[in-house]
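Sat 14:20. Reprocessing the chain from the morning session after the first attempt stalled halfway. Input below, unchanged.
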Amino acid sequence: MKRVDVLIVGGGPAGSTLAWALRDSGLTVTILDKQTFPRDKVCAGWVTPAVMEELQINLDDYAQGRTLQPISGFRVSQLGKKEVANHYQDKPVSYGIRRCEFDDYLLQRSGAELVLGQAFKSMIKQDAHWLVNDEFQASLVIGAGGHFCPVARAVGAKLGRHEQVVAAQEIEFQMTTAQQQECQIDAEVPELFFTPDLTGYGWVFRKGDYLNIGLGREDNHKLSDHVQKFCQFLKQHGKIPPDTPDKFHGHAYLLYPHAIREVIKDGVLLIGDAAGLAYPQSGEGIRPAVESALLAAQVIRACDGDYQQTSLHPYYVKLVERFGDRQPKAGLLERLPLGLKQALAGQLMQTHWFTRHVVMDRWFLHSQQAPLSEQVAQESATI
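Finished this time. Tokens:
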């Protein structure tokens, strides 16, 4: 029997960030993941400078032997309509990364004991501890295993039931020399294409020799058909090579307003996609994963070994303070009839002001929100 203070189930950005944030806490931390790393992960694969700052990543160091594609702008449109280019002159507003490299980097520097290639099988409550896989006795179990996190399921989440999920399909592949010449996507200016019914969007990101194409929708009915039509559109307009592979991989995630999961119980805490924290407009999960892990670390340190639900409650409070209410009041656009909303959005999507200040700055880049580390410093200075 191996005793640990904190057992993190899931070695993605949420789990590895939490372990890293607890590295000097005096707690014993173990990460359990069914995969071995590096491993592929279905994801568009881009992070903002805010994430890099929160993780204290030295960009020059990270770029050694890894993909780090600076992004200086985006082309935005509603599929088939006018494309609007938005360029940022000062510095990169995002970076294209490969998840197989990024996740492994975070995991290897986490400072935790790594138990990889071993799946989560069971957890049984024993007094003040959890017995996991009949092998680990943990005071606190962290669910960091994504939307289908087994820890979330073990403590009552109805995965796939009564949950409005976003389903996405994506492919990332290394282009041949000929494909690189045929690809018209500017590596510094990825392209986003919102679906006509506004229930999702497609993307094309170029990262050096690699090309990432995908599409996600809240309405996942016939998702493969939508993805196929999207790729046909891209090929017809000469944006991607005509021989682009067609073997897409799928995944699902919960948007923050749609998640109904409890994020804390006695001796259990959920972070990242396991807690349903993806941004509602963009579906991005990396920054919420990182920030939820940093917030959880603050609370875990303050618990001083007492991980009852009441002691973990400040974590829930911090999530609401950071991400807002799960079900905020509907804005003017949301209250409009569907047909009128789609018509209005179609017009707005063709304007520079809306695509720059609303779609990109607010929905995708979250420029209005300071990095968590900066916000914490500001709050400390006012106390």
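Residues 264 and 309 are 6 Å apart (CA to CA).
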